[in-house]
Amino acid sequence: MGLDSLQDVRVLLIDDDEDDYLLTKKIINRVENSPFTLEWVDSFEAAKEEIDADRHDVYLVDYRLGEHTGLDILKYARPHGRQQPFILLTGVGDSDLEWQSLRMAASDYLVKGSFDSTLLSRTIYYALQRKYIERQRIEHLIELSRSKDEFISISSHQLRTPATAVKQYLGMVLEGFVGELNPEQQALLMRAYQSNERQLRIVSDLLKVAQVDSGKMKLHLQSTDINELLKEVIADQAETIRARHQTIEFTPLLPIQPLHIDRDAFHMVFENLIDNASKYSSSDTRINVQVTRLKAGICITISDEGVGIDPNEQHRLFEKFARINNPLSTKVGGTGLGLYWAKRIIDMHKGRIDYKPNGPQGSQFFVTLPCKPPRTVKRITKAAKDKGVQ
Amino acid sequence: MTKQPLNLLIVEDDEDLNKAYQMILSSQGHEVASVFDGKQALEHIATHGDPDIIFLDLRMPILDGIGFLKQFDATSHTSTIVVFSNYDAQREVDEAYELGADRYVLKARAAPKELLRIVDDIAEDRRVTSEA
Predict the structure, then answer these.
(1) Which of A11, A70, A168, A311 has the fewest Cβ atoms surrounding its Cβ within 10 A?
(2) Mutate which of A167, A193, A198, A205 to test chain B, going by most B C-beta atoms within 10 A?
(3) What is the pTM of this model?
(4) A299: which strand partners?
């Protein structure tokens, strides 16, 4: 609503006292060239219906509403996405109300019996104006964030294609397409290949995060045997783990309990967690992956005997671009996006991820997933992709 | 057993990648043709007939991979279609499968030897199918 042309403002009074309604109506009618239309409900239940219907521009809410209070109305309205101003009408004795109502994001308050038509219309006007400015600011921030996501997405796409070409050309040389290399040449080119792989991983992480942050990530839910999925991820990483002289043990959940999850996304989530467990551990250490049953879901625990995480840094673990300093962080590299992305994917499945130290040394990550499919996402069946090369 | 050379078609708009795929795939004696978009691919197939394998990029100018598959009608052709994909192209991969694609390759992951392994796998599948 533009405020220069304030007109047709629909005001809902939520008040269980008809006399108060009549009085407020009288006050509103006294406003010169009044743009206000006043409607009235007298109970918490009726107010909820009107809030659901979302037909009003401003709400005037009596603090005392039978067994409820005006703050209950605010508590109901805000999670339901109502951003219109709520102005609390209070009695003289409601002393700590100002603090409470502001805390609950009421726009303002008026003390009953002490406001006239000028104060009422001014309060409504300024409440609407503040909301208008706030909405504009939010829209601007959303637009900025969208531009940022788009920028990251486009630039990452542009970076990825040449990096993929570098991978193929270096790959050809390393695989002997143009003749044998001497050990020094092989070693140098291998370093170049590994750097390029890192670059591709960074670009891919940036794209994955941009996709999740922009809300474009669609889940492809399918009934998934979590034991099989974890076995697959472990098998994919077995060679690397062996090469680091580490061992990995897997304890599956029996009997099998299928989960409705995005299989491909969780393949990457577990890949990331197990890869971290290995990368941040020295040789001769053990990684454990275990699936256990909970009341309403299952828990996948990935524990290692690695460098662990400084207690002062643990709160930043799932933040975007969080690089946690430890004795291996420089060597390992990484973008600080993997755990952030994993958490976002787990959140989208109504699950959670938690961290705990693994005794005196090492880390434990717990991924908890509900057995019921998340309700907010559509289940999409798709053609079998068992022949995909990842 | 000597390998039977196959006819391969690469559909990839990036010149460097297109060239790299040509070099990799032709290293094993296969006949490799390459084009830069879906429209050129349709024209190539109309002139030269069905290749054994089509390596198809999804995001291309003029006619992208999905557009190509819609016009190509995989059911009336004998080619095996391998889609080049990326992590963020899951939706397009799903659509490509519905339109007749047989496999997908994550571009940023597949090294030269993996591409050659795919060709060998497909060659084996086609040999078994043709003998059956």
Answers:
(1) A311
(2) A167
(3) 0.68
(4) A292, A368
